[in-house]
Design a protein that fits this description.
This is Pectate lyase. This protein is 16% helix and 28% strand. The protein is an alpha/beta fold. Bound molecules: 2-acetamido-2-deoxy-beta-D-glucopyranose (NAG) (5 copies).
Length: 439
């Protein structure tokens, strides 16, 4: 029954003129991309999201036990100062970070995603492409050596950077399917220009870069695939925009100050993990679902884990519609209005986060519901488990408990408590990795 509804919605979505999509001309190529992307998104949706949340909690527990064991055996308490040797404190990081040969084995990262975006392997198996040129002057015929040239290549591609660089994108960077943008080993800063757009694509990893001061750009003709150039309308000024796309993993990104959102996932996007990011100085942080009419977002399943919501953030961490959002072991240093909000009956499972409320008495509440009466929102499932509440922070729960999920028979996972969130997020943001030594 669900399937019929979604198919019908897909047709609707595709015939709606694509102004919000930034598309000036919706040609046959884009129609085909949209159809394909929708099909993959439907296949990527999981009917038992609790299994995925439960599996992630198990992985957190296992990696934390390993950290505790190591620190016990060396008699260094975890509370002691970090001494500079590699310390991976969460299951995503422990998959790759402390290996000396990370630079010779970059594809290893493709095994490391967890949560709803766990199937993202990006450019695994493709050639390694090295960005040598930070310029971005030709939107239609990008120069070999530039980032824009890499992201529109045919087939899987693993994109790395030759040296530290600042890239000012003249227009949105339209990334095609099966790509990894891997900033490890260089200090890559995308700033003072357009942001990154993933539209009608599948399977992209973005890792280890910094993005700040992103602004709206006027649009025009932009290459968006090996054999296609799109006419784009003005871009919104999002740092990372995920549109009708699936199997996306955003990891270890430092984000601040964009004209619109830091990370948006809209228009029936799903199978997404946002992890290990460090977010600061921004108003509208993360938007999942753009409109109360977009019920294609019912398939949206997103994991937000091990992120540090740092200084100067105002609201939307995240703001959700329709889908299922797992907010696990994040460290919320501060918000000014609220932390987690939404409309249109999303399901939100908040586990093991540390919430530090601001001093303002009017903003102690973590949660914020809009466009619904209490009779209505009281049915939405917004549940908190093992969160830590500081300075009067208050999570207003609603709806029945979310089934804990049974990942392994008879094995109920308890989330790691919020007082461990700062340890789990300790290395958030882009890392400084040196070749030949653990990162
Ligand atoms: C580490 O030591 C603490 C306190 O001595 C103990 O409670 C804990 O079980 C130990 N953890 C492991 C994984 O050995
Ligand atoms: C840091 O601590 C680790 C684990 O206890 C130890 O193996 C390593 O030698 C220490 N490194 C430095 C630079 O002190
Ligand atoms: C991406 O990779 C998958 C798996 O190899 C393949 O089936 C798909 O066609 C690729 N997509 C594009 C657009 O190249
Ligand atoms: C998911 O959970 C259900 C019960 O909640 C269980 O029957 C099913 O086997 C699980 N699936 C997987 C893949 O673990
Ligand atoms: C998780 O970790 C703790 C110790 O750190 C342990 O006591 C517990 O049994 C583990 N497993 C589960 C399922 O909670």
């Amino acid at each position: 029954m669900e399937r019929i509804t979604f198919t019908f919605l897909a047709v609707l979505a595709i015939t709606i003129p694509c102004l919000e999509a930034g598309i000036g001309l919706f040609d046959d190529y884009l129609k085909e991309q949209a159809d394909q992307a929708h099909k993959i998104a439907m296949e990527s949706f999981v009917p038992n999201p609790e299994n995925v949340t439960s599996e992630l909690n198990l992985d957190v527990n296992l990696s934390m036990m390993a950290v505790e064991k190591a620190s016990n055996s060396t008699r260094r308490g975890l509370s002691q100062r970090y001494n500079g040797s590699c310390l991976a404190t969460n299951p995503i990081d422990s998959c790759w970070r402390c290996r000396k040969n990370w630079a010779d084995d970059r594809f290893r990262l493709a095994q490391c995603s967890k949560g709803f975006g766990r199937r993202a392997v990006g450019g695994l198996g493709g050639p390694i492409y090295v960005v040598t040129d930070p310029s971005d002057d030709d939107m239609v015929n990008p120069k070999p050596g530039t980032l824009r040239y890499g992201v529109v290549q045919q087939g899987p591609l693993w994109i790395t950077f030759k040296h530290d660089m600042v890239i000012r994108l003249q227009q949105e960077l339209l990334v095609s399917s099966n790509k990894t943008i891997d900033g490890r080993g260089a200090n890559v800063l995308i700033k003072e220009g357009a942001g990154i757009t993933l539209q009608y694509v599948n399977n992209v990893i973005i890792h280890g870069i910094r993005i700040k001061k992103i602004v709206s750009k006027e649009g025009g003709m932009i290459k968006d695939g090996p054999d296609h150039i799109s006419f784009r309308t003005r871009s919104d000024g999002d740092a990372i925009s995920i549109f009708a796309s699936s199997n996306i993993w955003i990891d270890h990104i430092s984000l601040s100050q964009a004209e619109d959102g830091l990370i948006d996932a809209i228009y029936g996007s799903t199978a997404i993990t946002i992890s290990n990011c460090h977010l600061t100085k921004h108003n509208d942080v993360m938007l999942f679902g753009a409109n109360d009419q977009h019920n294609m977002d019912k398939i949206m399943q997103i994991t937000v884990a091990f992120n540090h919501f740092g200084r100067g953030l105002v609201q939307r961490m995240p703001r959700c519609r329709f889908g299922f959002v797992h907010v696990l072991n994040n460290d919320y240093t501060q918000w000014m209005m609220y932390a987690i909000g939404g409309s249109a009956a999303p399901t939100i499972l908040s586990q093991g986060n540390r919430f530090n409320a601001p001093n303002n008495d009017a903003a102690k509440e973590i949660t914020h519901r809009v466009n619904a009466s209490p009779e209505e929102w009281s049915k939405w499932q917004w549940r908190s488990e093992n969160d830590q509440f500081n300075n009067g922070a208050k999570f207003v729960e609603s709806g029945p408990p979310i089934d804990g999920g049974i990942f392994k028979k008879g094995f109920m996972m308890t989330p790691r408590p919020g007082n461990q969130a700062s340890r789990l997020t300790r290395f958030s943001g882009a890392l400084g990795c040196d070749v030949g030594v653990p990162c």
